[in-house]
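User: These chains co-purify. Model them together.
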Amino acid sequence: MAATRDQYLEEHNGRFVEALQEWLAIPSISTLSEHQEDVYMAAEWVRNRLVYMGFPEVRTIPTNGHPLVYGEWLVDPHQPTLLFYGHYDVQPVDPVDEWQSPPFEPVIRDGNIYCRGASDDKAQILLVLAALESWIRVDGRLPVNIKILLEGEEEAGGAGVDRFVSKNAELLEADAVLICDTHMVDISQPSIINGLRGILYTEIIVSGAKTDLHSGSYGGVAPNPLHALCVLLSRLKGEDGVIHIPELHEALPEVSAAEKEFWREDPLRIEDALCREMGVEQLVGENDFPPLERLGVRPTLEVHGIRGGFTGQGAKTVIPAEAVAKVSLRLPANLVPDEVFGWLKKAVKQHIPAGYAVRLVNLHGGRGVAVNPDNSYIQAATAALSAIYGREPVFMREGGSIPIAALFDAVLGAPVVLMGFGLPDDGAHAPNEKFSLEQFHLGMRTVAEFLGKIAR
Amino acid sequence: MAATRDQYLEEHNGRFVEALQEWLAIPSISTLSEHQEDVYMAAEWVRNRLVYMGFPEVRTIPTNGHPLVYGEWLVDPHQPTLLFYGHYDVQPVDPVDEWQSPPFEPVIRDGNIYCRGASDDKAQILLVLAALESWIRVDGRLPVNIKILLEGEEEAGGAGVDRFVSKNAELLEADAVLICDTHMVDISQPSIINGLRGILYTEIIVSGAKTDLHSGSYGGVAPNPLHALCVLLSRLKGEDGVIHIPELHEALPEVSAAEKEFWREDPLRIEDALCREMGVEQLVGENDFPPLERLGVRPTLEVHGIRGGFTGQGAKTVIPAEAVAKVSLRLPANLVPDEVFGWLKKAVKQHIPAGYAVRLVNLHGGRGVAVNPDNSYIQAATAALSAIYGREPVFMREGGSIPIAALFDAVLGAPVVLMGFGLPDDGAHAPNEKFSLEQFHLGMRTVAEFLGKIAR
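Assistant: Joint model of the two components:
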């Protein structure tokens, strides 16, 4: 029997890695309907894990989409209640030929485990479960009341969990929320996220002629929706990174002078790290703002893909009848995605070249979040990270969106602790996604420490 | 026994339609390697057809790509020799879900035969073979010497036939060349093509970061090659249709005042027909030039597809490492595609936003052709069309490219008769391609008539 939780986590580390490999091998891609069964199997897997750990209440909760997994272990009404949230679904894997090993065959290379979903978010869920297990097995009980809510639609907009959280404030009532779905600055520099951008994800559909046309017979007089989309997208955002939606700029939030200075000075040399990670010599975007500000609170507009016409091997001289762009905006926390959708729509109608019809689809949106660091749970996280990493964490904005964080903030009124253990080069959403096994282990120890610190 | 060729063509029309259906059912898509066997089968099919018709010499000629089919029947050294050219390969079929019936299951609806390759170019080859057959079976011999050259790479750049024609001027020596791969203005208005644009087909490949990136973690500082392509393409050609390649404009040819007037006056109301065919209320493109001039001799730049990132179902927040646009230019007859490629390359390097690498691939090119109507073969075609359709043909520019026509012109020094029987709404290269069965029959009769008229 291990005498301390650290010993327990050390002795059982291999078993946790094996469990992670087993879970990662389930290709739970939530946006592709052919993987519906896999997503369900991934939910079943983690449900069984909670049962095995001894959770007295474990439920699979159906939604219109993929199910939620809920676990609850209330140990003492005098102790605080921590709600832990994570997601067991993963991103699609294309371009699949850029993976060095098959995306759903987890392999360990150079101290990292490579698999789609490794960093985002399966390893980060399992390290929390390992931390809980160390308390259960070593101390015989959890130090605080625990609620666990795991969803399977985070990469698909999370409509199911949004509805569930909004309708079940009482069930989910908690003193704080823990989310481990972000990354640290560096393996030697722990960090806590004090802000997340929101997101609006849309499709812009441009139509020209009633059918596809031959560019020989019609080129010169025919509308080409692909070219119209190019003109439109270059007008919505220029080469200088400036977004041409006036309402957006009027609605941007004030930021503190201290944070502005941190961004300007960039003491952690994050700009250099970004260039290294991306393999580029210069950053692209709004030159008038420091890179950290652009990543943290500036709105962005990105095109993720353009469909229409012919992109196969060889030469097809088609002018397509329709072209579709997938476009998302990242938004500072105060902006409401549905409202931004209206502004985008207005700008699109204004900038579309003459002779085309255009319509927009609001695929999904989620608000950002701004964390007030002045509370005991953030302080406990700070202390736990300092104890395990031997270095004070820094507070960072995260450019990514975790819409559920904003919802917890709004519905539960509880502080959200965003303490992630990913690393910047994990490649979440990209080929060859990985998670550091050292971070897996340090993460378990940190969360175990954090649980002790929030107990009264 | 039929007493006249017209009677023969009437009596055997059903058999010709059946043969067409059989040939169309072979999915000879030359640009897709998985159809290599099908392309070969389509070549075998037409080779066997020539043997069945009685051609004394029939050969399949291998190339680096798909084979050529060559047939020769020299009946009388005192008669002229006509070289007939066609292509037995077809375009890809995507978007396949827009076809009302499967693209390679030929069906007859409302007097049209629907199948990929119907108009471009299988029916137009078979109607010529039917015309030849009517001479062979009714008159017992061909009225002139016939050479037939059919290729399987027209939709893929035709590199094999180009090399073959360049090296075999003696074998192919002819007094005139007949090509039936264009369309008439209207079923009641026959036309002969007096000019074809050339083509340059390229890929523009833009690179940003070394790997795909998450738009949450990197959006605001990351290069987005999809957006850079949009900016680039909107700079290469504006909303006004003007192409920003200065060398191109300096090299444009002079056109005759008579042709300019025909374009300006548009006596056949082709502008209205174009709007109807495309289902649009206004034409798009260079307003300073009449639509017929834009279709006939103005250079065009079209984007046919953009690859990169994610275009599937749902939402993936990826910023791709690379994006590729398929871009072609249509060129007036005097321009050399390889030279234009150099100008395009220069313009691309100049207009690509900062922070990106860009490279171009010259997929294929072919020069246009300008026909001098003042020769006896064009006059014979005019007389044949007038006799069968009861109306004088008009001379028209065709926006599409038949690079081989320019090569015949250059290598053989023989006049090229571009007498096509397609109709403007055939949908060559689009879903639901069709060919009119009435045109199939009128075409046979016209070509049989033409053969008689060119005999001495």
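Residues 118-139 of chain A form the longest helix (22 residues).
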